[in-house]
Amino acid sequence: MKIKSLLISLLAILTFSSCGAKQSENNNDNDMNKNNNNSKTIVVFFSHAGDNYGVGNIKEGNTKIVAEIISKKLDADLLEIVCVKDYDMSYDALCNLAKKEQQAGELPGFTLLLNNSKVEGKINLNAYNNIYIGGPVWWGTYPQVMFSFFKEYDLNVKTLHPFTTHEGSGLGNCVKDLEKTYPKATFSKAFSIYGHEVRTEEGKIKIEDWIR
Predict the structure, then answer these.
(1) Mean pLDDT across 18-40
(2) What CA–CA distance (Å, rounded) separates 156 from 97?
(3) What architecture does CATH give domain 40-211?
(4) Whole-structure pTM over 0.85, yes or no?
(5) Among 41, 127, 166, 212, whose CB has the most other CB atoms within 10 angstroms?
């Protein structure tokens, strides 16, 4: 009888342990699912088509090409900032206008295109944890219309991945200005690329290397 009771007790302990392990396994799965849900990615960018230094008059802006490569590689959403002002002018005229905007602290109005469809009202970015932020470098930093976006959207709890296109400015002060705007955000290593490189195979490799 004692042996029989002992075997029953051992069986009960093994059964309980097995159930505990199964529950722990399920909890781990739930945690992974939560992490995956919190890791949704979006690429936010402003890009200028038309007359650009080094590449001439282009139909698709340099930054947009980079943003599309990132979006495709990561299966991420694409959010384009479109300025309501008309920037269809010569490169020199645009440089002068951009300088005046910056000196005046102007914040031009904008609309948003999410995956090429116009956003009505304010977009909800709560679902996105990783945000790639890109634009050309105008007078040492992002164009003023991007600061209009930054003022309206709080990205302090996000992980930000800054990138720029340029013809000699590199990152400029873009990262520093983002850090001032979002002091509580987490920043990854930023990336810059020459505008005339983005249409080349070498440029594409550089972009993909940064993403990895």
Answers:
(1) 41
(2) 30
(3) 3-Layer(aba) Sandwich (3.40)
(4) no
(5) 166
